[in-house]
Design brief:
The complex is a heterodimer of chains A (93) and B (160). Chain A is of the alpha/beta class. Chain A is built from three helices and three strands; from the N terminus they run αβαβαβ. Chain A has a three-stranded parallel β-sheet with strand order 1-2-3, sandwiched between helices. Chain A starts with a helix and ends in a 13-residue tail after the last strand. In chain B, 25% of the residues lie in helices and 16% in strands. Chain B contains four helices and seven strands; from the N terminus they run H-E-E-E-E-H-H-E-E-H-E. Classes of the chains: A alpha/beta (93), B alpha/beta (160). Chains A and B meet through helix 1, strand 1, helix 2 and helix 3 of A and helix 2, helix 3, helix 4 and strand 7 of B.
């Protein structure tokens, strides 16, 4: 259900002039719903950012989600998460 | 990976039978500034509350369309999970709340200059709203107005 809720809330925020972006678990639901911007993530419900305590994976998902904000319209913009090879031991900063 | 085939039989039947909403026309607001300068709002869907907040009333047939406001400097691991349904696996959330409430990750991105800053108020709701009329009529507009009041430049929504 949250696949639908993120889209409905995001659309209302966009109607107020603020761009939004989200992850979504079920691509077919995204295509029916038409959220303004959504990144389909290949993870189970409850794991939107990938894996617990996997900081680099979580950051990767967030960066790809935010990248949708740079996509030209019109919506819906629905893209698939692309797995990145993250070097072992890589840390930000 | 979540595909239709990998959902439980009950959930797959629900997904196939449910009359999903369709957003038409699709609103699409442009970014007004680079993400590195943007104040970013956050909406999370996992029925999480601050320890001193009233739990979501998840016993209602249509669930609970209300919101909880969480300060963005909160440690996500201190939030209380008030959703006990099996709509999703709670084990990951219990181990690392950043999976669904990525406040630590967003603060790191702000510190690195990838985003400008976090909007001060995070919105927590219960995403499981099979009858979304109250959500669309009242809750979502209230959330939008809150982010306008907070001068948010973009909003991230994280499903549960």
């Amino acid at each position: 259900m949250c696949n639908q809720t993120v889209g409905l809330v995001g659309a209302e925020i966009e109607r107020h002039g603020i761009p939004t972006t989200t992850q979504i678990y079920l691509r077919n639901v995204a295509e029916m719903l038409q959220p303004p911007r959504a990144l389909w993530v290949p993870f189970a419900h409850g794991y939107a950012l990938g894996k617990p305590n996997d900081r680099n994976l979580q950051l990767s998902v967030l960066r790809q989600t935010f990248a949708l904000l740079d996509e030209p319209g019109p919506g819906p913009v629905i893209k698939d998460y692309v797995a990145e090879k993250i070097p072992i031991g890589m840390h930000m900063g | 990976m979540t595909t239709m085939q990998e959902l439980s039989t009950d959930l797959r039947a629900f997904v196939n039978m449910y009359k999903w909403q369709r957003i038409e026309p699709v609103p699409f607001a442009p970014m007004s500034k680079p993400l590195s300068e943007a104040r970013v709002g956050l909406v999370v869907m996992a029925c999480m509350t601050m320890p001193d907040q009233e739990p979501f009333d998840v016993g209602q047939p249509d669930n609970d369309p209300s919101i909880r406001i969480v300060p963005s400097d909160t440690d996500p691991q201190t939030l209380v999970n008030t959703y006990r349904d099996q709509g999703f696996d709670h084990a990951g959330l219990a181990e690392d709340a950043n999976l669904l409430i990525p406040l630590d990750r967003l603060r790191e991105m702000a510190a690195q200059g990838e985003i400008g800053e976090l909007s001060p108020r995070v919105i927590s709701i219960c995403g499981h709203l099979p009858h979304p009329k109250a959500l669309m009529d009242s809750t979502a507009p209230a959330i939008a107005r809150l982010f306008l009041d907070d001068d948010a430049d973009a909003v991230l929504l994280v499903p549960a």
